[in-house]
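User: Fold this; tokens only.

Assistant: Input:
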Amino acid sequence: MSRLLVLALAVSCCDGFAQQPAAPQSGQAPPARRVRPPAPTRDPHTPGYVKAKELPDGEVPSPKQNGNFIIGPTHPAAPEMSVKEGVPQGQVFEFTMESKDSKIYPGIAREPNTFARPDPDNPGKLLVNSYPAPYTRRVAVYVPRQYVPGTEAPFLVGADGPDRMLFTALDNLIAEKRIPVIIAISIGNGSGDAQGSQRGLEYDTMSGLYAQFVETEVLPLVEKKYNVKLTKDPEGRATMGCSSGGSAAMAMAWYRTDLYHRVLSYSGTFVYQQWPYNPETPHGAWDFHETLIPNSPRKPLRIWMHVSDRDNLNTRDNYHDWVLANENMAKVLAAKGYPYQFVFAKNAGHCDRTVKAQTLPLALEYVWQGYKGK
């Protein structure tokens, strides 16, 4: 399907070639911002998309099944997403991290009221005005009641935390012995969004730098503060995120397979959001399905992915269709023989909370399939 190459309005997770509005003259009201039209509804049976099994409304696939599935149009919450009487509830601790204490991310922000713009010498590159800026990030640590202090534990690292929905699901799944007794570290981003922001730098950069930040600056604090011991075995380590957090989860495992083998992504931003420009991955996270996965030996990764029929679409170029990007991910993962499950949700939007409430227990159980521990 062809797409017009037009300039789109800058919006949070799909910023782009928008023009900065002209400054109002004295006494005039500021110009109204254009409202981005809602994303169109995409048909999961569109030619070129992966072949997928359509499930009866309200059902989700088995966590033991690989492949592609279509769910919806309604999304009832899974019973594991509610607090249940008699189920042991894990403890949740919170602390903050300051940019001044980071050797990896000292902090940036985009200049106020500016937008990313194409480089006139190379329209594939974006120019952004950023400046050093401090930040504070919140970190939440979930420790299940069943955890024995000081013993080695598998764990999950989540983006854009704290994530209360995740903690509730973990209580119930651990109690039912459907997943291991895992610790969850839910890490807030460093503020802002998209190109030129701290969050964009952390999540949309195609490298192992964010994984290194977590490994050297976050996990040691967690172990020290809460008397937990986090496994070094990559089979016992999972990553999770939504939108750019989803592509960050994939990057953590792809570039640091020595650290992570399990990935969970909602509405993953497998599109061209990377900034600064990197000639090794000229299309940012789009390169996951365009070149990296197809052209690399299969890695020991297990992946769960979701996308919605009304997920993000930015028509400024051919690299900003979230649905197509996730469909392409499923296609190349299948071709390489990866264990993966891909869920296409009808009647849903970007990072849709109703879909998460319906599928998170499934996703967690799928991602942790096959874990043996010690």
